[in-house]
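Chapter summary example.
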Amino acid sequence: MHKTGIAPLHRTERYAGVLQRYRRWLAIPDYTQDVTMLEGNTPLIPLPRLAEALGGDFELYAKFEGLNPTGSFKDRGMTIAIGEAAGRGAQTVVCASTGNTAASAAAYAARAGLRCIVLIPEGKVAAGKLAGAIAYGAQVIQIEGSFDEALNLVLELSQNRPIALVNSLNPYRLEGQQTAAFEICDDLGESPDWLCLPVGNAGNITAYWMGFKKYDACYACGLPRLLGVQAAGAAPLVLGNPVKNPETIATAIRIGKPARGEQALAAAEESGGRIIAVDDAAILAMQTRLASEGLWVEPASAAGLAGFAAEVLAGRLDIKGARIVAVCTGHGLKDPDIIVRQSSALARIPAQLNRLEEIIAWR
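The structure predicted for these 363 residues follows.
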């Protein structure tokens, strides 16, 4: 038993998806089907060198959600949303997406034998995410407009047709996503002192807060403070108003009017935390820093840690002796283009040992 009374998971539970492992905690209909690809159970990876660089007197972990089946945290909520839709007899699901939702919805719809329709903003989705949606068999439609306009279209479509909307406006998405908070408490035996994470459409920060509160009510495992981080070019929750044309290299959080914005602000305030913004340079620098410790994440996934580092270095966070968890929402393979563009040309030499020795430049 952990010190809070949280029972460690049995081996059989560790080899199950989030619905089988946590169903008793989820407010979902009995008819919800278990449409799983063994999502969840992602690791907490210690980041001691980064912690040392930021002062060292605290514990720092990354919750690496990029190890979910389609490479992002979206799978946690999608397994429940698709399972609920399939359980009530839906034949088609639809979503608007900046990429990760598209790939996840397409994969889980394929798993359930459902048709999937995806709307994306033209030219605004990373190639790895678009490829995933196509590979899983979704009908992908580009619109001449923003994610927010795409979301309005699919919302209207789902209200007028027998189609299940699986964006984060769907409450079952949040039910699934909160399981990441359960896992963190299961692994640590209590909640962390701070949870840092990117904020785009704001469903994830809302879901984490739901999960921590639910576990604390049962196990008295405590509540973290939340540090939500937006990209400076797409920071409506920081600015206090929608951003009509959001721009950031972090495509996953390039959203100007978050669907769960009010709930996210309420969660941050209730936790004693806040939502801030960092620029693209800080996000890319943190992506590179994480890769130097062996953790490759997509740009948006580095936003939470970039914001945390900025607050620590500016003296705005007292973290002495604290335990910090940063959520890395997606794998670097989901959005590799920026890395390739930034890299210098690869060295090219003849297949000769002397030339290899020269270019390695042994010291």
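To summarize the output: The radius of gyration is 21 Å.
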